[in-house]
Structures are given as structure tokens and as C-alpha cells.
């Protein structure tokens, strides 16, 4: 939303809340004029659409006021570039932040419509893969909550992350058609369209003053069309814009080819162009897939830069003020090509001198790193870059040459060091290191937990950190409490409000006011009653979706996240099998009832991860059908994990599994969501678990396993684990059972690849941490038996989680990286 409007100071803070009758009238009007139905013929989807449009009107009023205020006050703008925005459903988000949920509920009830039923009708906008995209969504909400003038920029994928089905235990992928029935939250901005070039050649033009100007002549052009979604902050005091780009061909059809009878070929250019925004993360296992991924990244980075520069020049006469008025945050390496694109725009189009342009670029950009896995730091083959983005490859070469010249001037002449510092990786085929490009083109580079930021300095950016000291800073991730407490867990929110008052709703740090109450037996019982009700709801979901009945009084032990070997769902499954074996061998022991809950998607081409999903389902099939357990152990894998399913699972969890190999999880945010909702964490000293331990206290978290330093030492001695397995009778028995086909009787060798990897190449330290994990799970059992101790620890997790608010994280970005002011919400 760009247009500035004339008018006096916005008065949203003093806006009178609309009455139930007014909201009911607005919904009926939208049903008639926005949907074209009346109450007699309206379907559930019609009612959802009408309600969303009525709520949207309330958001739009504040949106226009916020935009007007930004232009009037000439605020510095923050632009958040992310290939993912896992925003989920928006109806309850908007109603909650505008404090109108109860009003809408009553208005609909008067029309015979159940608001909670409408929640299930809204599609889940799965425009992200996991933590990266969900973090971007939380940050957008917090920037609005803190009245930071911000835009989020991404891609409007026709099909987001795939819809997961489980058939015979195997993951199957289907398109997630979230736009099929329309999207009431977005505003098409067909007039906001930018040409995005690919291929072609670069022409050197000699100017009269003797300088050489370069002009890129693309062979192909795709149009980027803007679609805007307003993102409301808490209490509606500010609304920002999420602008997503859709790819369109300049010409929808080659009419000459169509008239010749080549009806398919006539649309080939359109199909190629629109493939850019068709699917989130197309497989890059083929050269064509790699090219499409790079096209996506450049497409949205270029469109976003063209848009923000156009906006800047509309308001400011000089482009040189860009770093003073604009902050661009690169969310991971996906948008890193924006560094070269901004240099092209400044130097080639606006005739800015190179050195000045580079200072402007570095002063404007900052970069968030999300991974210590070298293979996850994107690199692109130089031939691909030269063919697809020839001018950008020239610019990257020049950036690199000047950077290495500067290093030599500083006395860095060691060839190996210069090779490590280079943007171009010469080993095994020349590739462009996008992490290096983002690092050099940014004035700040941040990690997302204290441990991760420290490790960045000695691992992936060791050499760059040495020659550019002080550039790396830490900004520990956070979550928005509006989504992950107030909306997801209204019962707990009410209890907290009744116990400590409403101040925590605006200032999450006030949750510590709860600490004195956590030892009170009456409060503990109320806290437990809220948890019990949430578990009953989740038990109904499990019964509906899987036809598996689980006991709400059992320990709900939950691991929900992307399926990956380093996240170690496999370690969790091994412990499950070990307990299963023990329960059958010792049926008279007083076993506590436990439900193991898994959910998550594996990348479509990640065979090992998909095999782990199959194993979880095979173990569930055997365990759940074994009458000797008498229902005391259940295993469930809930399919198609997304934001909405997380909102149902997290408030019901007793134990949160955060068991990644130490040193491999940058931060995690699921750990924070679980802790906020009163789950105890079992985890390694990895990512933000380290800081969570510091905040909640050693007695209220279960830590196990090798530390980051110990993992490194272990790997140095080799990752053959035969000796480790031989020392653990329990582990050996479990691996033998899995490897011999106990859980795959029709295909005994099915899990040989998993067992072989654990035995001979256990890079992720599953076997090394098994005994510690197994023993710590027994400590979990012991604490679970002491209900008062468990409940107090659970409440203390909630009480000490305020620091992990994304409001705190964004405030730190604002002060230390973006240089913008914040305006916290007020009740």
C-alpha cells in the first residue's frame, strides 16, 4: 500500500469499538455485496469470506492511517526480504489484534453461525517450509506491533509447501492449492508491475567523458505483479504491508503460433514465466530445477528493490540518502543476489559512482544467517550465473576483486586465506558463494541465538569475521505471543490474566509476575485443568484424523518440525522402540501412560528423511496394535503439519522434544512456543535451548547429550559407531529389531539404510547420544509422577518465557541494526 493520503493525525488509538449489531450488519452486507449470497443460501465458506471482508475493512482503516503517518513523519522504512512467509490463517490473527474476536463471535451467533467452525474453512497459507518462514511471519507482526514502518517482500506462490498425505506409512506430496477459493486478505496491485530480466548480454557504452557505462540487454523479460496483504499489530495501533510478487508473462499468448494450430506452444513462454511463482522450493536436483530456484530468488529480489527505490525517490530527491531512510534485511542467503542487483541499479541505471554505490549498499543491507551447515549456504555455478544474470556476474567479479585487493593491501597475502575469503569458490568447479556476497554487502550480519552467533565466527564465517571484526552480532529469535499464546491458548491466557492482571498482554516481560504463584497448589490445579482441556481437544483431533484413541491423562511427548537427520526424529523413535521392548518384557512394572506425537514434512527428494517418516508410522502400527501394552504407549504421526495444526498441538504438549545434534540447530522457535504454553523441554545444548535453560532454570528443563565441542571431538575421532553400539545392550537390541524387520515384516531390509548409516556413518551422533537421551527420559518419567513438581516446572516455563517474545527481538534489530525507533503497544 503506497499511496499517501491527506488528512489530520490518525486517531486509531481513540477509535470507538464497533458494536455487535454494527459488525453483524457489516457481515450481512459483505455476504450480499461481496459474496453475492443471502443467509439462506450461504455455505460455510461464504460466511467465512463475508466475515473476513468485514474484519478486513477494520484493518484497512488502520492501514491507511499507518501509511499516512509514515509518509507524514518521513519514517525510515524497514524492508524484510524473505523467500518464505509462513503466515497461516489470518482471520483470528486479525480479529485478535484488533480486539474484536468476542464481538464477531456474538455477531455471528446471532446469525446462527459458529465462528470456530469458520476457522477450519480458511485455507492455511503455507508459503514457507518451517522455522525460517514462521519467523518471518512473527517478525512482520512484531514490526507492526512496535509501529515500525515496514514492508515484507516475498513470492505469492500459487502452490505453497506441498500437502502431505501418508499412505501405507509413506509420505506422498500433493499441491497445496490455497488460492483455489480466493483470498479475502489480499489486494491485487496490477498497476504495480516491474520488468525482471534474464539472460541476454551486456553492452559496454563509451561515454564522452571517457568512462564506460554498462547496459544489460536481457533476452527474456518477466513481469512481477504486486499483491498486498495488510498485517495488523497488537491492538491495531499500526498496520504494515506484506507485498508478494506474482510472475506473469508480458504477453499471455503468441497469437501467430496459436493461429497456426500450435495451441500448446503458443502458451510456452507464459508457462515458463509463470513457473517462477508456481511452487515454493522446486526441487533443485536437476539443472532445470537449479535454474528455476535462482530465477525465483532474483525475481523477487529485483522486484522488491525496484519497488522500494521507486518509493524512496517519490519522497526524497536524492538516492544517496537511501541508507538513512531504508534498511533492508536479507532473511538467509535466498535474497543475497539483491546485493549485486542494488549495485546494478545504482551504477548502471542511476549513474552513481561505484565507490559511493558500494557504501550505500553496505549501509542499507543487513543479513541474517540461519544455518551452520556449509551445504545450506547457497552457492551457484558460475556458468549458470553468467548465462542467466550476465551483468550481475560481472558485478560480483568486481566486488570480489576489490575485496581481495583490499585484503592484500592489509597484508593478507596467503593464497589459501584469499581463496577462503573469495566470493568465488574455485574448488570442484567455480561457484558463487552467496553467503560471502551477503556478508560483504551488509553492515551487520546476525545469528539467531547466542550459541549460533558465536559458532558463526569460528565456522562458516571464520575468515571473514577475522578480517571484518565486529560485523557479526547476535539477535536471538523470538515468537509472537499474540499467535502462540493469546490466540492458540485462550484458556491459559484467561488464567494468566486472572492471576497476574493484563499487563503481560502488552509487555511480555511481565510474565515473571507469575513466578510467586507457581508454588500455589490452587493455581497449579487451575494450570493443570487448562492443559487437560487442551489435551482433550488434541485427543479428538487424533481420533478424527487417525482413528487412534489416546488418553488425555497420559504424558503427551511431542516432536513436531521438519523431518531432517540433524533434528533427530530417529533418536526419538529409537527410544520409543526401547520403551516398547521394555514394556513387553516387564509388563508388571508401573509404566506411566505416554503418547508419542510426531508431525513434520520431509523434502520431496530427501529419501532418508522420508524413510524416517515411514519408520515412525511402522512403529506406530506395531505399538498401537499390541494388546500387551494395554494402551499405555501410543505413537501417532499427524499428517500435513502446518501452522494451524501446530496451534492445536502445542498448547496440549507436556514434553517438548528439541533434540538436534548440538551445534546444528541455529535457534529453533518451536522450543519457545512449547515453553510458553507450559511444556517442559527435553533437549541438547543447541540453538536457543541454551538461553532457555538460563531463563527457566536447570530444574525446569531436561538437558542431555554431547555439547557442541564434544560433537566436534567425536567426529574428529571418526563416526563409526560399532563400538558405541556394542557398549549399549538396549541400543543394540533396538537396532537389531529395526534392522531385522520387526517393524517391516513384509520387507525385512527396508530399514537397512538407516541402521547402516547409524552403525558406520553416524554423523549426527544419534548412537553417541542414545544412552544419555534414554536416561534423561527416565528422569522425565520420575518427575511426571510428582504432579506438584511437574506442574510448578510447567508454570515456571510459562513465567520465564517472556524474554523470547519477537517484540524483544525486533526491538534489538531496530536499535542495533536498522536504526529505527519503536513505539510499544499500550493497553
UniProtKB/TrEMBL annotation:
The protein's required cofactors: pyridoxal 5'-phosphate
The organism's superkingdom is given as: Bacteria
* Record field: catalytic activity: [(1->4)-alpha-D-glucosyl](n) + phosphate = [(1->4)-alpha-D-glucosyl](n-1) + alpha-D-glucose 1-phosphate
Q: Which key words tag this protein in UniProt?
A: Allosteric enzyme, Carbohydrate metabolism, Glycosyltransferase, Pyridoxal phosphate, Transferase
Q: Name one GO cellular component term.
A: cytoplasm
Q: Which Gene3D superfamilies match?
A: Glycogen Phosphorylase B (3.40.50.2000)
Note whether Zinc-finger occurs among the keywords.
Answer: no
According to the UniProt entry, which residues carry N6-(pyridoxal phosphate)lysine? 673
One function term, GO molecular function aspect? glycogen phosphorylase activity
Q: Which GO terms describe its biological process?
A: glycogen catabolic process
Asked whether the keyword Glycosyltransferase is assigned, the reply is yes
Give one Pfam family.
Phosphorylase
InterPro entries cross-referenced by the UniProt entry: Glycg_phsphrylas, Glyco_trans_35, Pyridoxal_P_attach_site
Primary enzyme class: transferase
- Known EC number(s)? 2.4.1.1
Which PANTHER family is this protein grouped with? GLYCOGEN PHOSPHORYLASE, GLYCOGEN PHOSPHORYLASE, LIVER FORM
Q: What does this protein do?
A: Allosteric enzyme that catalyzes the rate-limiting step in glycogen catabolism, the phosphorolytic cleavage of glycogen to produce glucose-1-phosphate, and plays a central role in maintaining cellular and organismal glucose homeostasis.
Per the record, the similarity remark reads: Belongs to the glycogen phosphorylase family.
| Protein's UniProt name | Alpha-1,4 glucan phosphorylase
Q: What organism, scientifically named, is this protein from?
A: Siculibacillus lacustris
Amino acid at each position: 500500500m503506497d499511496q499517501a493520503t491527506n488528512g489530520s493525525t490518525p486517531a486509531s488509538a481513540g477509535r470507538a469499538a464497533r458494536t455487535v449489531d454494527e459488525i453483524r450488519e457489516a457481515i450481512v452486507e459483505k455476504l450480499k455485496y461481496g459474496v453475492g449470497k443471502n443467509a439462506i443460501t450461504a455455505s460455510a465458506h461464504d460466511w467465512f469470506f463475508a466475515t473476513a471482508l468485514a474484519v478486513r475493512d477494520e484493518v484497512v482503516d488502520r492501514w491507511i492511517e499507518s501509511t499516512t503517518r509514515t509518509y507524514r513523519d518521513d519514517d525510515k522504512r524497514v524492508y524484510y526480504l524473505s523467500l518464505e512467509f509462513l503466515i497461516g490463517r489470518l482471520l483470528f490473527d486479525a480479529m485478535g489484534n484488533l480486539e474484536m474476536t468476542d464481538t464477531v463471535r456474538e455477531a455471528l451467533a446471532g446469525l446462527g453461525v459458529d465462528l470456530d467452525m469458520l476457522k477450519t474453512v480458511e485455507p492455511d497459507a503455507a508459503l514457507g517450509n518451517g522455522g525460517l518462514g514462521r519467523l518471518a511471519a512473527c517478525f512482520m507482526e512484531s514490526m507492526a506491533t512496535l509501529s515500525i514502518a515496514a514492508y515484507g517482500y516475498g513470492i505469492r506462490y500459487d502452490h505453497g509447501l506441498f500437502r502431505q498425505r501418508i499412505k501405507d506409512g509413506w509420505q506422498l506430496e500433493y499441491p497445496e492449492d490455497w488460492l483455489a477459493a480466493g483470498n479475502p486478505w489480499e489486494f491485487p496491485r496490477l498497476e504495480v508491475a516491474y520488468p525482471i530480466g534474464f539472460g541476454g548480454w551486456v553492452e559496454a557504452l563509451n561515454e564522452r567523458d571517457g568512462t564506460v557505462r554498462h547496459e544489460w540487454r536481457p533476452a527474456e523479460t518477466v513481469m512481477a505483479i504486486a499483491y498486498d496483504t495488510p498485517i495488523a499489530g497488537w491492538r491495531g495501533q499500526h498496520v504494515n504491508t506484506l507485498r508478494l510478487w506474482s510472475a506473469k508473462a508480458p504477453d499471455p499468448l503468441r497469437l501467430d503460433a496459436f493461429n497456426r494450430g500450435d495451441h500448446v506452444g503458443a502458451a510456452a513462454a507464459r508457462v515458463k514465466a509463470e513457473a517462477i511463482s508456481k511452487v515454493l522450493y522446486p526441487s533443485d536436483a536437476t539443472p532445470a530445477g537449479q535454474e528455476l530456484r535462482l530465477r525465483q530468488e532474483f525475481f523477487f529480489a529485483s522486484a522488491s528493490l525496484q519497488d522500494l527505490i521507486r518509493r524512496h525517490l517519490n519522497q526524497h530527491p536524492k538516492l544517496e540518502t537511501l541508507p538513512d531512510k531504508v534498511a533492508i534485511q536479507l532473511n538467509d542467503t535466498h535474497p543475497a543476489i539483491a546485493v549485486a542487483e542494488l549495485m546494478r541499479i545504482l551504477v548502471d541505471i542511476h549513474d552513481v559512482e561505484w565507490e559511493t554505490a558500494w557504501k550505500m549498499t553496505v549501509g542499507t543491507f543487513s543479513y541474517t544467517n540461519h544455518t551452520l551447515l556449509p551445504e545450506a549456504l547457497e552457492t551457484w555455478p558460475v556458468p549458470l550465473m553468467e548465462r542467466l544474470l550476465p551483468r550481475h556476474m560481472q558485478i560480483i567479479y568486481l566486488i570480489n576483486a576489490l575485496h581481495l585487493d583490499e585484503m592484500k593491501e592489509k597484508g593478507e597475502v596467503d593464497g589459501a586465506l584469499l581463496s577462503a575469503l573469495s566470493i568465488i569458490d574455485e574448488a570442484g568447479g567455480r561457484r558463487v558463494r552467496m553467503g560471502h556476497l551477503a556478508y560483504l554487502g551488509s553492515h551487520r550480519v546476525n545469528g539467531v541465538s547466542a550459541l549460533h552467533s558465536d559458532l558463526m565466527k569460528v565456522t562458516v564465517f571464520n575468515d571473514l569475521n577475522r578480517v571484518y571484526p565486529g560485523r557479526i552480532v547476535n539477535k536471538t529469535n523470538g515468537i509472537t505471543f499474540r499467535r502462540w499464546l493469546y490466540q492458540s491458548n485462550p484458556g491459559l491466557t484467561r488464567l494468566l490474566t486472572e492471576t497476574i492482571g493484563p499487563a503481560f498482554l502488552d509487555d511480555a516481560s511481565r510474565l515473571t509476575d507469575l513466578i510467586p504463584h507457581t508454588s500455589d497448589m490452587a493455581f497449579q490445579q487451575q494450570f493443570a485443568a487448562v492443559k487437560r482441556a487442551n489435551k482433550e481437544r488434541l485427543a479428538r483431533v487424533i481420533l478424527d484424523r487417525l482413528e487412534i484413541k489416546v488418553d488425555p491423562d497420559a504424558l503427551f511427548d511431542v516432536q513436531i518440525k521438519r523431518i531432517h537427520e540433524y533434528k533427530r526424529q530417529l533418536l526419538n523413535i529409537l527410544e520409543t522402540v526401547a520403551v516398547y521392548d521394555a514394556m513387553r518384557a516387564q509388563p508388571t512394572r508401573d509404566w506411566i501412560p505416554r503418547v508419542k506425537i510426531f508431525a513434520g514434512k520431509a523434502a520431496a527428494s530427501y529419501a532418508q528423511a522420508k524413510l524416517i517418516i515411514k519408520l515412525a508410522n511402522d512403529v506406530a502400527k506395531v505399538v498401537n496394535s499390541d494388546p500387551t501394552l494395554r494402551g499405555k504407549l501410543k505413537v501417532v504421526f499427524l499428517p500435513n503439519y502446518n501452522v494451524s495444526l501446530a496451534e492445536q498441538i502445542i498448547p496440549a504438549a507436556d514434553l517438548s522434544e528439541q533434540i538436534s545434534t548440538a551445534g546444528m540447530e541455529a535457534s529453533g522457535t518451536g522450543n519457545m512456543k512449547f515453553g510458553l504454553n507450559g511444556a517442559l523441554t527435553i533437549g541438547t545444548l543447541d540453538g536457543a535451548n541454551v538461553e532457555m535453560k538460563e531463563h527457566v532454570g536447570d530444574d525446569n528443563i531436561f538437558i542431555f547429550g554431547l555439547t557442541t565441542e564434544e560433537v566436534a571431538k567425536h567426529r574428529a575421532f571418526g563416526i563409526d559407531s560399532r563400538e558405541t553400539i556394542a557398549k549399549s545392550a538396549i541400543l543394540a537390541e533396538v537396532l537389531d529389531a529395526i534392522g531385522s524387520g520387526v517393524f517391516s515384516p513384509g520387507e525385512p531390509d527396508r530399514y537397512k539404510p538407516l541402521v547402516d548409516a547409524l552403525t558406520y556413518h553416524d554423523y549426527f551422533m544419534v548412537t553417541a547420544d542414545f544412552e544419555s537421551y534414554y536416561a534423561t527420559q527416565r528422569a522425565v518419567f520420575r518427575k511426571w509422577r510428582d504432579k506438584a513438581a511437574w506442574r510448578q516446572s510447567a508454570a515456571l516455563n510459562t513465567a520465564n518465557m517472556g524474554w523470547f517474545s519477537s517484540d524483544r527481538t525486533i526491538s534489538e534489530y531496530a536499535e542495533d541494526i536498522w536504526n529505527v525507533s519503536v513505539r510499544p503497544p499500550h493497553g
